[in-house]
Amino acid sequence: MENPEVDAAMATPDATPDSTVEGSQSSVTFVKSQEQEKEQDKEKEQDKEKKNKQDEDQESIISSLLSHLEPGGGSPRTPKRVLAFVRVKPSAHFAQDIIKLGSDNKSIDIYIQKSPKGGIVNNSQTDWSFRLDGLLHNASQEMVYETVAKDLVSKALQGYNGTIMCYGQTGAGKTYTMTGAASEYRDRGIIPRAIQQVFKSAAEFLNILVSVRISYLEIYNEALFDLLAPALGRGCKDAQLAVMDGPRGVYVKGLSIHPVSHEEEALHLLFEARGPKYSRESRGCGRWPREEAEKREGETNRVIAEHSLNKNSSRSHCIFTMYIECRSRDYTNHKCLKSKITLIDLAGSERLSKTGSEGQVRVEASYINKSLSFLEQLVIALADPKREHIPFRQSKLTHVLKDSLGGNCNTVLVTNIYGEAEHVEETLSSLRFATRMNWVTAEPAPNEPFFRETSVKALEEEIQLLKRELIMHDTLANRSSTSYTPLTTTQRAEIRSQVQKYLRGVIEEIDIVNVRQIQEVFRQFKVIVSQQEEEVENRLWSKYGLGHRDVASESDLSSDLHLAEAQAEEKQEGKGRTVEKDEDLGQDSNQGTLETGSFPTSLVPDGKKGAKEEDVKEKSESPPSDPIRDGSSPSQSPTKDLDEEEEGGDQDSDEEASVTSSEDSQFRSPPSKKEAFELFKKEAGREISRIFRENRTILLSRKKRSHSVAQRINHLKQQTEGVREALEAQKRKRSQEGEYVDEKGRVIIDEKEFSLIRKLKELKEEHRAGFAELQDLKAEIQYCQQLVDKCRKRLISEFEIWYKESFLIPEDVREALRPGGNIRPGMIPLNRITCLDEDEQERFERLQETALPDCPGSVSFYRARMKTDRRQSFSRTVAALRKMCRKPGTVSANGKKKAPSFLPIT
Ligand SMILES: Nc1ncnc2c1ncn2[C@@H]1O[C@H](COP(=O)(O)OP(=O)(O)OP(=O)(O)O)[C@@H](O)[C@H]1O
Predict the structure, then answer these.
(1) Which residues cross the membrane (predicted)?
(2) CB proximity list for 755: less than 8 A, separation 6 or greater
């Protein structure tokens, strides 16, 4: 028992002292006497003993289920009603005259004054009475869990499916009940507590091995989303998700299900599901304003929106499922008991007039209300024993819940209501729903233990049967020689040789034999193509003197890129030749994500002056130095000598002057990106810049050659046309003048015509050769273009990192990053920076000191929370860095002792 939690809930200022039920709770103020404390200790001891006993019982129940020949013990099923609880949201304005909570903690009466608008004869009903399975008023999260979920979860370990669903008006506390507040351990909701209970029980079982998998589905505007989708270029709509009816019940095709081996892992997935995997936009639900999007980045995965009743209103239904499998640890029998716990947080019903929703939020609301009304229709049908057709397929939500409501499942509904008078109408309709749900009956029974060996055997038999059918079919179709066994090595080699012969033109066709053979033929084609590709690449690579091909580094190039900078680079590089203006460069850069215009110009951080010639020389021979490790500033201004050495006088003199003059200043703001980029090309990015330039030169020369070959071909074409016309004229002349023939009747042509024919032939050959050369050149150009693009991307991405490290990370952070660590020169992973963000670690340590001694069970919760916080901090830092690029003058390159706001400190 976590008593502090209960005490705190009792002491909440939201308590409503006058209402019957909570009057007896909230007015309790007690000073613990020693005796009371002793009694509590004793109770705790007894609780512990009772729990141990229960665990033992549970294990023996599972064992007996696994060893029973007849699943479920063959006992008759006893119909059971769905349990319905009501949770009242704490309020300082509890409408005690309108809402009366029964002293039995099970009934709730609503009294509404007759409306004066009803006229003299006013028959509208004014009193309602509801009787449910329990009222949760001013109840702590722990109490709620103990009441509604604990038993259901332990039953799930015994093979019973279980469903808990939170229903209610928007803002009434469904998400708080189901997931809870993520910041405080004691405020965690049903899902984290259920995870904890399952793993805790599993750890205590001696002979039973429990494996757990989880999935998290979201239904938003009648579309399905996987909240745990494994790196989907995450953020894509899961078009492939679909609700299907299978032989073992309903399932969602394409939904990822994640095995989890301990509590922390499961909690981490739960918290991460609230990470920035999806953007609102990617679900087609409209774009957040930019400020809002930045605020939300790293906060929530589930679609939320703000309206007058809830700042973080969930706009979707979420279904968290735990799939549990129990089997005997020593494998004495091969049965396995499967069950699932389905935890549903529905989106809140809302009256548009009350929430004042507009635009997209209004559209969402209409989807929500529609799907909730389908749910209500379903519940009405389920509650009516005479109904033959149950409308499960009316909406995605009702379809998904087909085997989770009633049926053979333990089902619990928590209806969340407000206690205020202004919401009494919605409260009434929520209570009506609860009552209807309470009428639904279920016949819970443990799922049939699944016998692995038996099912494997059944499948093998099925395969044998199908093979026999196939043989019979082949015999009837006169194809008796076909074999369906997997290919042997010799058969594979035979197919490979056939493919090679086919490619060489030795054989015209490859005979089709069966599916395996066709697949092998394709596989061999693929192998040959990729071998050839590699060969060609290697040849070109060495031809252009790029040294050994480093496949790993090629893949590095796919980092975050900014095309505009690349164009700027290209223009800058081409300056010597095409004489382009600096303004063009600036404009181009501004079109991309990088905004060069926003920083003060000609600014270089201090401490960079006086680079000696030896240093420069050293640098020119060694790979780009790590500015952090060696202590020198990365943006050290190049000397004039270096400019000359590097650019061979190719540099614009104006620019040189501006860079050189910047040396003299002591600056507090980072230099403009344009300037920094020039600097980078001369220092840290010198090597990649050189390769880029070389590749581009080769590309240009190939383009030039291709151009001249094309011109030559055109010229040849014109010449050919001329000769062809002359030849035609000659032929016409010959036929007009009369033709000479020899004794064999062959036409005799004169010398001029003969030379024209010869010339035509030569021209055609030349044309063909030119055309072939042009084709080769095109292939080369394409390849060179790719190389240039790759180099450009690399140059920019490395520059981006270098720039952030050199100018946007304050000196003290750089200082802290310096010792130890595996940091590649010029590449400080940003997550290293966020690791420095001591707040998470410190907070955890603080919690360990304070909270953990009372609740040792909270370790997993806080660890998982911390992991998620770190990831979110990282996202926020990156977002903040991006933002800084847009806002001029917000960060100084040095001189700040305190971490700036982009390193989040909470
Ligand atoms: N029992 C409670 N104790 C303390 N705070 C609560 C309680 N119930 C709800 N809240 C608070 O009320 C606010 C709204 O709750 P919540 O988001 O859970 O509502 P909801 O029913 O899920 O709303 P929606 O349907 O719009 O998503 C939250 O800030 C939550 O922390």
Answers:
(1) none
(2) none
- Please give the number of the atom of ligand 1 that sits closest to the Cα of 177: 18
Q: Give the residue extent of every domain in the chain.
A: 183-348, 544-822, 829-906
- The DSSP bridge pattern shows strands 208-220 and 258-260 to be antiparallel
> Is residue 62 over pLDDT 70?
yes
Strand boundaries in 76-191, DSSP class E:
80-81, 83-88, 99-101, 107-111, 127-131, 134-137, 161-168
Q: How far is CA 600 from the centre of its chain?
A: 37
- pLDDT tier at 124 (50, 70, 90 boundaries)? low
**Upper half-sphere CA count for residue 722 (Cβ side, 13 Å):** 8
Question: Has residue 50 got a pLDDT over 50?
Answer: yes
Ligand 1 mean position to 142 CA, how many Å? 16
Calpha distance 503→509 (Å, rounded) = 10
Q: 423 in ligand 1 pocket by Cβ < 6 Å?
A: no
Distance from the alpha carbon of residue 172 to the mean position of ligand 1, in angstroms: 5
Ligand 1 atom with the smallest distance to the CA of 9 is 3
Residue 52 CB neighbours (<10 A)? 11
Which one of 89, 307, 371, 414 would you pick to mutate in the ligand 1 pocket, going by the greatest count of ligand atoms within 8 A of its CB? 89
545 pLDDT above the threshold of 90: no
169 is known to lie in a ligand binding site: yes
Amino acid at 621: E
Q: How far apart are CA 426 and CA 409, in angstroms?
A: 28
Q: Which atom of ligand 1 is nearest to the CA of 178?
A: 18
Ligand 1 atom with least separation from CA of 172: 21
When comparing pLDDT for 313 and 905, which is higher?
313
Spatial separation of the C-alpha atoms in residues 638 and 643, rounded to whole Å: 7
Any ligand 1 atom below 6 A from CB of 172: yes
Q: Cα(151)–Cα(264) distance, rounded to whole angstroms?
A: 22
Tell how strand 335-345 and strand 258-260 pair up.
unpaired
895 pLDDT more than 70: no
Ligand 1 contact, 444 CB (< 6 A) = no
* Distance in angstroms between the alpha carbons of the first and the last residue of the chain: 30
The reply to whether 72 sits in an annotated binding site is: no
Residues 69, 73, 79, 81: what is their CA dihedral angle, to the nearest 10 degrees?
-100
pLDDT score of 54 more than 60: yes
Per-residue confidence (pLDDT) for residue 705, from 0 to 100: 92
Indicate which atom in ligand 1 lies nearest the CA of residue 349. Answer: 25
Cα R_g (the chain), whole angstroms: 38
Ligand 1 centroid – CA 171 distance (Å):
5
Q: Which architecture, in CATH terms, is 183-348?
A: 3-Layer(aba) Sandwich (3.40)
DSSP state of 597: G
Q: Is 772 among the annotated ligand-binding positions?
A: no
168 is in an annotated binding site: yes
Expressed in angstroms and rounded, the spacing between residue 567 Cα and the centre of ligand 1 is 51
pLDDT in tens, 63-77: 777 766 444 444 555
Instruction: State the pLDDT at residue 371.
Output: 82
Which residue's alpha carbon is nearest to atom 14 within ligand 1? 171
Furthest-apart CA atoms within the chain: distance in Å: 141
User: Is 175 a known ligand-binding residue?
Assistant: yes
- Residue 307 Cα: closest atom of ligand 1: 26
* pLDDT score of 177: 95
- Residue 630 to residue 651: CA distance in whole angstroms: 28
The most confident of 224-233, 636-645, 666-675, by mean pLDDT: 224-233
Say if pTM beats, i.e. exceeds, 0.80.
no
Q: Which of 261, 241, 260 is nearest to 251 (CA)?
A: 241
Question: What is the spatial distance between Cα 198 and Cα 150, in angstroms, rounded to a whole number?
Answer: 10
Residue 342 parent element (H or E)? strand 335-345
- Nearest alpha-carbon partner for 863 in 4, 263, 229: 263
Pocket flag, ligand 1, residue 180 (CB < 6 Å): no
